[in-house]
Amino acid sequence: MTRRTKSEWTEAAAQAAPNGACVIDGKRVPAASGETYASVNPATGAAIVEVSAGAQEDVNRAVAAARRAFDTGPWRRMRPRERGQRLIRLGELIEHHGPELSLLETLDIGKPVRYTTRVDLDQAQYTFRWYGELADKLYDEMAPTGPDVVGLVRREPLGVVGAITPWNFPMMIAAWKLAPALVMGNSVVLKPADQSPLTALRLAELALEAGVPPGVFNVVPGSGPGAGAPLALHPDVDAIAFTGSTEVGKQLLSYAGQSNMKRVSLETGGKTPNILFEDVPDLDFALRAVGFSVFWNSGEMCVAGSRLLVQAGIYDQVVDRLAAVAASWQPGDPLDPATKAGPVIDTAQHDKVMSYIARGHEQGARLICGGHKALTESGGYFVEPTVFADVDNSMAIARDEIFGPVLGVIPFKTEAEAVAIANDTHYGLSAALWTSDLSRAHRVSQALQAGTVWVNNFDQADMTAPFGGFKQSGFGGKDKSKYAVDKYTNLKTTWINIGKGGRRSDA
Ligand code: NAD
After folding, report:
1. What is residue 188's predicted lDDT score, i.e. its pLDDT?
2. Whose CA is nearest to atom 11 of ligand 1?
3. Which atom of ligand 1 is closest in space to residue 223's alpha carbon?
């Protein structure tokens, strides 16, 4: 994508005219109630566009369209290669519409264009291409039984999948759900976060252009209780694929129990421990990674390394250097390609982050830098990158997922103590450790209760490796990689008698 200047992005933002209507059965339609809500730019506090406030009736229409498409439409009956080619085409269209989609994401969530162009857009297009290529490389199996009977083990699509997604990586996480669900032949109804519906709605249009038949991919924007709950409670939805908070994840489990015991897969919160041992191989590199781990995306990351555990011998030195690390993540205008940090998503999140900063003070943590609102004249929801030292793991800033640019530094003396502190959380999404000792790297990474462990790096990731959490960070299948298809398929066993020895019928 051609690089644009700040004034070019600002000009494009002034021209942007996104469409906030639902996409149901291949058409743009308003909510049945006619109600809308304003999608707000978190960098300015100004409304971008009125978005359809989807509710029960819209969910009913979308689920009916998805069911029709699944039961009688061509999508699941296509050869896998044909489905795959259409998903690859969708990846190409996403790339082709890169500037438009990156801008929509930046306006909707305040993430700097520097990253919506490089990360969100790139990941979204690549995800569809990757699963498109996987389409005809997944084989079913034959059970190793005996000569008289054939036991076939086949993957079948589930049917209608409801996807419910968060606002921190709207396009990328939607792609992580959609691509493996669609490639296996399912239909999808996507409920994006109320704060960030714009790229999801545009993706549904591009999918139609790529040849995904009407009804296969529908988007109903709206609030969690208004549109998400009716989707999760719907008796004709076969599975819910969710990324969001642990609290809402628990509600979804209950909705499944109250309705049709639909499958639920949950990618939820985190409170990642990032452990710096005294033998950290390259402290300069590690400290840059510390800054990235918690200040990138304004700290609005499920994997944010918000608990920095530092061994006693390097504790003072590390704490002394963290103000400079934080200074390189001062927020600015997201439309400026030089900006590395934007605002947090909305006023509620802004107030939440500020209240955790107040609790850090109250509970006795030592403020090293930050702690205030920033760029208040912009009308947006900016917070200074904030570092607290001398944090105890029992403090609220160490226990709760703040989802903002707030780092807590926790001292420790021994390896055993570091592991105990790291695991003392109900989350288990990810963890990182820095050491030159190979044995320790293996020992500690085995002891950490987390779905992903990084050794001497932070946030290494690739579509080839699964992503998902332990403990209350989620379960029910992983995102990314070939493992993601597990949560969008049922395994069916078929026994075919081919000889005289039909053992069971003799019994
Ligand atoms: P959230 O749980 O508030 O909302 C997520 C989605 O659920 C939104 O679409 C929302 O509208 C919907 N929702 C809310 N209440 C609902 C209800 N009662 N019924 C059905 N749907 C409902 O989360 P968020 O604030 O959008 O995102 C932040 C959270 O997401 C953090 O906890 C973060 O850790 C988590 N997250 C996890 C991962 C991961 O892969 N593990 C990735 C990104 C974000």
Report:
1. 99
2. 224
3. 11
Mean pLDDT over 432-460 rounds to 98
Position 1 confidence tier, pLDDT thresholds 50, 70, 90: low
pTM across the whole model = 0.97
Distance CA 432, CA 441 (A): 10
The whole-chain average pLDDT of the chain stands at 97
The pLDDT > 90 percentage for the chain reads 97
φ, ψ for residue 451, nearest 5 deg: -70, -25
Q: Which two tokens stand for residue 497?
A: 């008698």
**Residue list, ligand 1 pocket, CB within 6 Å:** 164-168, 191, 193-194, 223-225, 228-229, 232, 243-245, 248, 251, 267-270, 302, 401, 403, 429, 469, 473-474
pLDDT in tens, 392-412: 999 999 999 999 999 999 999
What are the E-state strand segments in 347-460?
A: 366-369, 373-374, 382-383, 386-389, 406-412, 427-428, 430-434, 452-455
Question: Residue 127: in which H helix or E strand, if any?
Answer: helix 121-134
Report the chain's terminal Cα–Cα distance, integer Å. 68
Distance 282 CA to ligand 1 centre (A): 36
Q: Which residue segments constitute the domains of the chain, with CATH numbers given?
A: 6-268+474-492 (3.40.605.10), 273-455 (3.40.309.10)
Q: How far is the CA of 248 from the centre of ligand 1 (A)?
A: 6
User: For residue 286, what are the CA distances in angstroms to 45, 47, 136?
Assistant: 35, 39, 41
pLDDT at 507 over 70: no
| Beta carbons of 374 and 330 less than 8 angstroms apart | yes
How far is the C-alpha of 141 from the C-alpha of 124, rounded, in Å? 31
For residues 50, 30, 88, 96, the Cα torsion angle rounded to the nearest 10 degrees is: -40
Whole-number Å distance, alpha carbon 315 to ligand 1 midpoint, is 35
Give dist(CA 372, CA 333) in Å, integer: 17
- Tokens encoding 83: 């489905």
Longest dimension (CA), the chain: 83
Is residue 252 within 8 A of residue 222, CB to CB? The reply is no
Distance, in Å, from the CA atom of 281 to the CA atom of 371, rounded to the nearest integer, reads: 31
Mutate to test the pocket of ligand 1, among 223, 243, 258, 475 (most ligand atoms within 8 A of CB): 243
The answer to whether the CB of 389 falls within 8 A of the CB of 319 is: yes
Give residue 5 CA to ligand 1 midpoint distance, Å. 33
* Those residues with Cβ within 8 angstroms of residue 222's Cβ, 6 or more apart along the chain or in another chain: 31, 52, 53, 54, 55, 58, 191, 194, 228
State the Cα torsion 71-235-207-50 to the nearest 10°: 140
